[in-house]
Inverse folding.
């Protein structure tokens, strides 16, 4: 069973990541890269703060590339399918993933 620590209103917690965690994450990323490369799959990871235009950029990339490339997207909205819906309007496969922070 996990223990959840919740901050009080206005309270901020600093979280330090251990080097082992970062090293393990790098290993997983390298394994993923090898797997994707072995299948000839090119990937783009778009990250940024809310409202910075990530989905708009992805939609534009899909529109520009879909006629010459097979495209799929993984949309990682935490609570909605808005981004997945916008991307899928371009007739490309979109997988919606949600994270639950309960």
């Amino acid at each position: 069973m996990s223990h959840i620590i919740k901050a009080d209103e206005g309270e901020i917690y600093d979280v330090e990541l251990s080097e082992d965690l970062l090293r393990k994450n790098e290993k997983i990323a390298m394994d993923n890269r090898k797997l994707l490369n072995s299948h000839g799959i090119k990937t783009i990871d778009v990250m940024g703060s809310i409202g910075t235009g990530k989905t708009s950029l992805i939609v534009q990339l899909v529109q520009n590339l879909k006629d010459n490339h097979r495209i799929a997207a993984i949309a990682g909205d935490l609570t909605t399918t808005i981004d997945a819906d916008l991307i899928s309007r371009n007739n490309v496969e979109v997988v919606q993933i949600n994270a639950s922070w309960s």
Q: What stands out?
A: The chain has a mean pLDDT of 86. Strands lie at 72-75, 93-96. Helices lie at 19-38, 54-65, 82-88.
